[in-house]
Amino acid sequence: MALNFEKELLVKELKKKKPKKVLVQLPEGVKQNALELVDIFKDLNIEVIFSGETAWGGCAIAVGEAKDVQADLIVHFGHAKFIDVDFPVIYIPIRDEMDLIPILKKSLKTLEKFKKIGFSYSIQHMHDLPKILDFYKQNKKQVVLSKKLGRVAYEGHITGCQYQGLKAIQDEVECFVILGNQFHSMGAVLAVDKPVFLIDVYNDEVRSMQGLKEKILKQRAISIQKLKDAQNIGIITETKLGQKFNSPKILLDKIKSQGKNVIVITMNEFGPDKLMNFYSIDAFIELACPRIAIDDFAKYPKPLLTLNEALVAFGIKTWDELLEKGFL
């Protein structure tokens, strides 16, 4: 795996913006590369500070942090624009430069019975899209890119919580292929009814996501039942800019009308250790990133549910509606 930090693009944008102090955000897996970037800022006489906070996606823009250190620009690496913020931000893609042809060839056996495939890619592989499309065309596959809907930045682009673009082409294709990692393909398989296959470039394998989907659906059904049975409920809202997606208002009256106790909890970022402090709470509903409840299921000793799952638990939606419209 060779990472290209698009340094020429970075220099061009910095010369255009002329910042005096910059806060740099790097994804978790590439914070180790911070030293490679220092000289770029030094040569332009720009003071640089690297954020040590998590940056899981384009939803995690550290505006408050930038203001605290008196930066006048954020340089956000590795993700495309996801939300609008009231602060200058430069988005620099990180190219994952690798030869995809061997694993694309490997995918042909798995996709043998499918002629028309829906396709999505993680942002690190966008530069290889023409090559990918040409490969499948040469091998008599018709590729339909997922639509640019919701908060995704480009046609075919996939993020961890936006799958409207896949749903929009579902009737046109026989299956879906996700180029990237399990994080993106897991969300996809929960969002659509067609077979989903992951081209896992980091583990050099091509696999169906169907078995994982069945396992997750069982886990979510159990969590919904536990929320129904819970007496004391906590609703978690995140204070991060990109996590303010939902309001607790729709749930509060419904929960109270069923004779249950409920509190609203704010957190900038949460995990099992923080929730353990609320030991009197039987189950939690999180209104931040829905992937936390689904991906980190095993980490939490008490049920943790998404907004849509909570709506099912309290009779506002049905399980069938949840399956149709999606968990995310």
Explained architecture:
The protein has 328 residues and is an alpha/beta fold. The chain has three domains: 2-94, 3-Layer(aba) Sandwich (Rossmann fold), CATH 3.40.50; 101-208, Diphthamide synthesis DPH1/DPH2 domain 2 (Rossmann fold, 3-Layer(aba) Sandwich); 216-325, Rossmann fold, CATH 3.40.50. Helices cover 35% and strands 21% of the residues. It has helices at 7-17, 35-43, 63-68, 101-110, 129-138, 164-167, 182-191, 210-229, 249-257, 272-276, 290-295, 307-313, 319-325, and strands at residues 2-4, 21-25, 47-50, 73-77, 89-92, 95-97, 116-121, 142-145, 175-180, 196-200, 205-208, 232-238, 261-267, 283-286, 304-305. It has a five-stranded mixed beta sheet, sandwiched between helices. It has a four-stranded parallel beta sheet with strand order 3-2-4-5. Helix 8 (210-229) crosses helix 12 (307-313). The longest helix has 20 residues, at 210-229. The protein is flat. The model has no long low-confidence stretch (mean pLDDT 93).
Can you give me a brief rundown of this structure?
35% of the residues lie in helices and 21% in strands. The chain is α/β, with parallel strands linked by helices and 328 residues long.
User: Strands of the largest sheet, in order across it?
Assistant: 8-7-9-10-11
Summarize the amount of helix as a percent range.
25-40%
CATH topology call of the largest domain: Rossmann fold
What is the number of domains?
A: 3
The second-level CATH architecture of the largest domain is: 3-Layer(aba) Sandwich
Identify the overall geometry: flat
Rounded Rg: 21 Å
Structural class: alpha/beta
Assign the CATH class of the largest domain.
Answer: Alpha Beta
Proportion in β-strands: 15-25%
**How many beta-strand segments?**
15
Oligomeric form: single chain
